[in-house]
Amino acid sequence: MFNLILFGPPGSGKGTQSEKLIAKYGLKHLSTGDLLRSEISCQTPLGKEAKSIMDKGQLVPDEVVIGMISSALDANPDARGFLFDGFPRTAAQAEALDKLLELKEAPIAAMLALEVSEDELIKRLLKRGETSGRSDDTNEVVIRARITEYHNKTAVVADYYKKFDKVVMVKGEGTIDEIFNRLCTEIDKRA
Ligand code: AMP
To answer: Which residue CA neighbors atom 5 of ligand 1 most closely?
Structure first.
């Protein structure tokens, strides 16, 4: 089993690159943002609770997302590996993920971190908001809150994986294919 984390601030291209990576490497894509949005569209109690938090650009409680990931791992016992997108976002989530993967004897091979300047992120997210239907992409105040949340809470996740020498910084600007090729070069070194 080959497990990867795709990391980076909102708007760094995780969704776009994930689609290409899962197709090439045969991985199962696990995006906590997508899982939460599906709970919202099904109007589940969890979805209703998460929506108000997500609309403010804040993080949903750790136990909620850890529970969702744990269920998704159990639901895919035959997966060749997983590409985690938007998870883990806190040190507690990273520790919980390591424990879950220990049970499967399949540690994280690498955390690929996309780096994009803040101006470019805001430009991309406002553009995405014109078509994505995502309420958290249309308001610049919420976008900035999400980027601040990323720096305040999520950057510690990179520190966690640095201890295990698993962080790989990848330039997230350029064409989609240029960025994809940079990611593949790094993955192939570790496969
Ligand atoms: P994303 O699609 O990854 O940008 O996530 C959209 C929103 O969902 C975030 O701004 C958070 O409110 C919430 N979210 C997604 N993943 C997580 C996570 N791992 N931990 C906490 N909140 C999350």
So the answer is: 33
For residue 153, what pLDDT band results from cuts at 50, 70 and 90? confident
- 36, 90, 100, best to mutate for ligand 1 pocket (most atoms within 8 Å of CB): 36
Question: Closest by alpha carbon to 33, among 20, 51, 12, 21?
Answer: 51
Angle at 166 between CA 149 and CA 25, to 5 degrees: 95
How far apart CA 100 and CA 66 sit, in angstroms, is 9
- pTM equals 0.92
The active-site residue out of 28, 128, 144, 153 is 128
Task: Name the catalytic one among 37, 51, 124, 146.
Answer: 146
Q: For the CA atoms of 138, 115, 8, 97, what is the dihedral angle to 10 degrees? A: 180
